[in-house]
User: What shape does this take?
Amino acid sequence: MDKLFLHDFGVHMIIGVYDWERTTPQSVKLDLEIGLPESCRAGQSDNIKDAINYAEVAEHIRNYIAAHEFHLIEALAEQIATLILRDFHAPWVSVSATKPAVVRGVGRLGITIERSAY
Assistant: This one.
């Protein structure tokens, strides 16, 4: 399966379960790998109309995050995966989401999930 990726995709957002986390936006980093549908012919056609457009994916995710609230990084990753599968017709997606850790001695914490449309 061919995959496109967006790594080190940064967003600022309110996320967390503690009251103090919900007062200031945090830097969240996303790493996405998106499986390409078999019908994707961008490699042969060299035409953006035949591709999943990276810029559209990034803008779609930013707009979604701006319109929704999240407490858990797990829920954020799950919603982004659902969005990509549904709105970009990807057969498979991997989403990693990390944020500054609230656990002593840990720099960042996060999750990686993989989902498929089947």
Q: What stands out?
A: The first helix runs from residue 42 to 45.
